[in-house]
Amino acid sequence: xxxxxxxxxxxxxxVASVVTLSACAAxxxxxxxxxxxxxxxxxxxxxxxxxxxxxxxxxxxxxxLVIRDVPKLIGIGYFAATTKGMEEAAKxxxxxxxxxxxxxxxxxxxxxxxxxxxxxQGVDVLLFAANDPVAIAPVLKxxxxxxxxxxxxxxxxQEDARQFxxxxxxFEAIGxxxxxxMVSQVGPEADVAIVTSSLTAPNQNRWIEEMKKxxxxxxxxxxxxxxxxxxxxQQLAFKATQDIMKTYPNVKGVFGLSSVAFPxxxxxxxxxxxxxxxxxxxxxxxxxxxPFVKEGCVKSVVLWNPVDLGYAAVYAARALADGExxxxxxxxxxxxxxxxxxNGSEILLGPPFIxxxxxxxxxxx
Amino acid sequence: MTNTKVVRxxxxxxxxxxxxxxxxxxxxxxxxxxxxxxxxxxxxTVNNLLNQTRLFTETALLALPxxxxxxxGGIDLSVGSMLAWSAVMLGFSWQLVxxxxxxxxxxxxxxxxxxxxINGALIAYxxxxxxxxxxxxxxxxxxxxxxxxxxxxxxxFPEEFAFWGxxxxxxxPTQFLILMALVIIVHIxxxxxxxxxxxxxxxxxxxxxxxxxxxxxxVKLALYSFSGLMAGLAAFIFTSRVTxxxxxxxxxxxxxxxxxxxxxxxxxxxGSGSIVGTILGLxxxxxxxxxxxxxGVKGDATFMTIGLVLILAVLVNNALRKK
Lengths: 365, 323
What we know:
Number of helices of chain B: 14
CATH superfamily of the largest domain in chain A: Response regulator
Strand order of the largest sheet of chain B: 1-2
Largest interface: A-B, 48 and 61 residues
Radius of gyration of chain B: 20 Å
Largest sheet of chain B: 2 strands, antiparallel
Strand content of chain B: under 5%
Largest sheet of chain A: 8 strands, mixed
Strand content of chain A: 15-25%
Shape of chain B: globular
Order of helices and strands of chain B: HHHHHHHEEHHHHHHH
Number of domains of chain A: 2
CATH class of chain B: Mainly Alpha
Distance between the termini of chain A: 67 Å
Radius of gyration of chain A: 25 Å
CATH topology of chain B: ABC transporter involved in vitamin B12 uptake, BtuC
CATH architecture of chain B: Orthogonal Bundle
CATH architecture of the largest domain in chain A: 3-Layer(aba) Sandwich
Oligomer: heterodimer
Distance between the termini of chain B: 24 Å
CATH topology of the largest domain in chain A: Rossmann fold
Number of helices of chain A: 10
Number of domains of chain B: 1
Order of helices and strands of chain A: HEHEHEHEEHEHEHEHEHEHEEEE
């Protein structure tokens, strides 16, 4: 009897597994969903236009827009700042029903759920900052298929899953801003060193490339003595900066190229009692650098302004709905930000924002 | 407060007709659907409801074995990590090892199964309490996911792979049909077979179950292995839905799964629960979240409401049990 029962039970589990397995192993039937019809190439579409195009989007020119913003997460200072900029723009433009809503953790599954529900709600525009550029693509494409306008900011998706992306900072602009900031403190003739994250970090390497390119052209006497890694470890950044000061006593400035390298470098200079003698310049967030900026060991922090980023995204959405922003546009009029340049399907926010002792308290992220 | 009154009323109305827990849950579900359809006209549409099945299939797949495990007096906290680990192995074996995609899917399912087997062996034979064993493997499997993937995501799956998570058969999302088949199988397994009775017996009193000749260890091993296999299947469908594998996928999913099972009337102390109840619990949570978001309620308020409903349901459940 017992054996019989056991047999039945193992059989049923087996059946369950086999069903599962065969369900997975069977080759998927060809073309599950009708192959998406090639978007009709509008006559004025630039060649090689890779960004997404909404299907049968209604004419929204001058009409009331329902805009929903789904950042990576809510409840943190950074995205509270982008939302603030968006609300400001929505108020200025008027005729916009705007709301931000997103998960309270940066989870792509939850973000997809929010986007999906907004698509069902039938909004006009979706703004997003992607938790994952690929995973978010299917749901954004679904929005485009239903005629919803899709604009990204801060963190892009696959290019064909959105129409435009507001790029907060190009590598070029960041590189230039860092050099200008350094030169303004140490002059055009000085030895400088770099503390980067890891020597293979793609973003940091692009910044270094742009910095060197720009300084070679404009400040040829700015001399880069060394580049040391900090591997996203503040202690290592601290030590690297100490080594730099020991090995190159003439160094007048240190670049800290990550949110960890910058405070590490600043701390080393401070503890060596060389505040004011050696300039520390870099990329980080206001909160991370606030103590150093307040006591004057760091004069400025280079980054973009998330309030402006959100502001520009809503202006882009309005212009897109009004037909003023379209594939091939080279400029976007964005209220108080003036005219923003467009590169392909990327709207450039322009030069980075410099946080200083005077303005750093207006920001909390 | 009005909420409580409404629910109480519904409870009283249903009590005569449907005395069972499932009856109460079903009444609650109808009530929620009714209220939500008043709040948003886009809620009660075939399109929206079918679309929701895409979003909850992975949770539902994990809720099936979780129901059995909780009935048996255990728990499996590692399901979210097993899902991530399986998904990472899918991407890893396909892109880095170069296996054909169907084989990579098999690797994904096997990974889940192995994860479950390890849980089962720890719990049944090494006699580590389920809560501790799966809390440990929750961390271990998540760590493996990050280690194997180097925290990089795998992408670029072929178009036809999207069939399982984004495609449809007739009007139904593919994964919904897979889920329905499994719901029926597991329901029958639990309610109509000797194995199902063993699961209840172990949950009611493990010692007496053992004395009556039930192979407690092997049943437990089977349950946790089944949970792992379902995590592998959910990983496959999840990967197909989002077209990428990430080591941080499904973080915290175990809580959604357990919430659905407990809302469905399963006792966390073992011995009672049902697949029908779990599915009702899952529908209540999913539709509540969907409907409130559609009605324009903010995300955080939505989650609070779900928490309240969960507590309410347990109270109603307890009251019912006392009668």
